[in-house]
Amino acid sequence: MRATIIRFPGSNCDHDVEHLYGTLLGASTSVIWHTERDLKKPDFVVLPGGFSFGDYLRTGALARVSPVMDSVKKFVSEGGSVIGICNGFQILCECGLLPGVLLRNIERQFLSRFVSIRVESTASTFTQKFQKNSVLTCPVAHGEGNYFCDQETLKALEGDGQVVFRYCDRSGSRDDSSREINPNGSLNSIAGIMNAKGNVVGLMPHPERAVETLVGAVGGTTGLAMFQ
Predict the structure, then answer these.
(1) 78 catalytic per annotation
(2) Is there a contact between 2 and 30 (Cβ–Cβ < 8 Å)?
(3) Are the CB atoms for 89 and 126 separated by under 8 Å?
(4) CA distance 154 to 160
(5) What angle do CA 175, 49, 61 make, to 5 degrees?
(6) Which listed residue, 13, 96, 117, 175, has the most CB atoms within 10 A of its CB?
(7) What are phi and psi of 99, to 5 degrees?
(8) The dihedral formed by the CA atoms of 42, 1, 26 and 32, expressed in degrees to the nearest 10
(9) Alpha helices, DSSP H only, in 97-175?
(10) Which of 13, 120, 142, 206 is catalytic?
(11) Beta carbons of 182 and 145 less than 8 angstroms apart
C-alpha cells in the first residue's frame, strides 16, 4: 500500500497521517511539497488538515492553485483515490473535485472538541470496511466547517448517496438544529461527502486522530477502519 501525503505551507496534520500509514499500518509513505508534480505512483493521495497558506482569502483558495493540484486532478480522472481531511476537504471543494463550500461555523467560533459521525455510505474507497450507520467519535478542529451548497446540489448529493458522514449523537441520532450534535451548522448535518465515482472523499472531522487507544481519548480507535 502506497500513500502520498501532500504538504502545503501551514499543513499541521501531515505528520499524523504519515505516522498512521507508515507506523501503524506499515504502508509506504511519500510526503511531497505542494510545488511538486510527481505524486510518486501512489495507491491513494491524502490532503491533510491544517491552515494552508494561513487561510488567506478563504480556506483552500490559494492551495487549489498549487502545482501539485494539477497532478491530483489528473490522478482522480484516471480513477485514483483521494481523501481530504479538514483543510483537505476545503481544498477539494475549492478546486472543484467535490461540490459545495465550507463556510464559517454558525456560531462564528473555532471548534476544538470531539464529535460523533454516522457512516451514511460504504460505497467509497475509504468507507468500505465500515458497517452502514456505524458511529465514529473523533475530534474536529476548524473555524470554517459549515458545509453549504445550493438546493439542487444538495438534492443530488442526497439522492445519489454521496453523503458519506453525518454529524450525530453517540447513539447515531441526528438533529440538524442542535449545536451539540451538529456543532458547525452544516446543511443536513453533513460531515463528509464523496464524488459520484466514490474515489474522492472529503470530511471535516479528524478520524486520523482516533486510531490509537493512547491518544484517541473518547474516540478510541473508531477511525482506524477508514485507513486500513
Answers:
(1) no
(2) yes
(3) no
(4) 10
(5) 95
(6) 117
(7) -80, 160
(8) 0
(9) 151-159
(10) 206
(11) no
Q: Catalytic residue at 15?
A: no
Q: Check residue 118 and give its pLDDT.
A: 98
The residue to which cell 502545503 is assigned: 8
Using CA atoms, how far apart are residues 186 and 188, in angstroms rounded to an integer?
Answer: 6
For residue 217, pLDDT beyond 90: no
Residues in the chain: 228
- Catalytic residue from among 18, 34, 86, 93: 86
Instruction: List the catalytic residue out of 18, 120, 144, 208.
Output: 208
**Architecture of the domain whose range is 2-101+108-226:** 3-Layer(aba) Sandwich (3.40)
Q: To which residue does cell 502520498 refer?
A: 4
Instruction: Name the strand (E) or helix (H) holding 197.
Output: none
Domain boundaries, the chain: 2-101+108-226
218 against 154, higher pLDDT: 154
| Cell 465550507 found at | 102
Q: What percent of the chain has pLDDT over 70?
A: 100
- 28: cell is 509506504
Residue 206 designated active-site: yes
Which grid cell sits at 180?
451539540
